[in-house]
Write a structure and sequence with these properties.
With 338 residues, this protein is mainly α. Helices cover 72% and strands 1% of the residues. A hairpin with a 2-residue loop joins β1 and β2 (206-207).
Length: 338
Amino acid sequence: MAANNAGDLSTAATRQLVGGAVGAIALGLGVALLRRGFTPQTGRETLAGARTHARQKRSPLRVDEPPQVKAARRLNRAAGLLGTSTLLDSAVEHYRGSFQNKAMYTPLIVSALMLAVSAHGTRDKRPIAHGVRDATYLAAALTGIAGTGFHIYNIAKRPGGFSWQNLFYGSPLGAPGAVALSGLLGYYSERLRDNESDKIPKVFGLPAGRALAALSGVGLLATAGEAGLLHFRGAYHNPFMFAPVTVPPLAGALLGETALSRPRRPRRLTRWWLRLTALLGFAGAGFHAYGVQRNMGGWRNWSQNVLNGPPIPAPPSFTGLALAGLAALGLLEEHPDA
């Protein structure tokens, strides 16, 4: 009996160690990616950047990138990351549903197209909207709205309607909303490009920076709500499961404060909290991978455990929304009245 108890403790300790290692690796990857995007580079890259700057100074034809184009490219990147998360998550969930309705292929196709146009927009420095990107982003937004209707109908027709049981195990209400949000962010980025560089950027008649901060904040709150529902289903058995329902909501609140005010000073706390939220998305994917490994058979039985375990592609949606919030802060630094 004592030997069995010791073996169980050893197995539990090993699992905890593996989980910590996976989370640390994912967090380290997130730090590396974020540092590449937010910190200056050194060594040969710094020397290359200095040479490029010198060539720009010698050439009167080279001009600095307009702030609205820079923010639009960051939004393209955010929409692409959010679209990647929804693409993989929808693929797993709809495969588990055996694609009983042929419309279940639609979000996969649209998200894949959105990922392609987001990559194109990230590299496009022209201050004009792109017709193909516009159409793809708009199609993604409409697909997400229609998908939300399908998921609501799926839950409502079940015995018991909108009960906890059906909300836990029925079609996830937040998943198609993430598709709609990624399309809306991309469509917003194209509208942002159309602004003239010598004027205050506006989108749909609203100050572009504060409107984007509000949109990103609402997205973070909604995504945290979906995570809270599913983690409540898991009874918060791991203390780290409280992170997605505490860190992103505070980031959303800080973005809301930015949207409602006229910031005349750098929002350092908001910026660093958004970076923490972005890192949380990478770490969450690592913890979910560990959750898959904890199921019977672990990764050797991946074809079943990936479907029944925690969704690995879901947490990086926090990263995409945090990047959108950082794009809003960057635009407000260039145009405080935006």
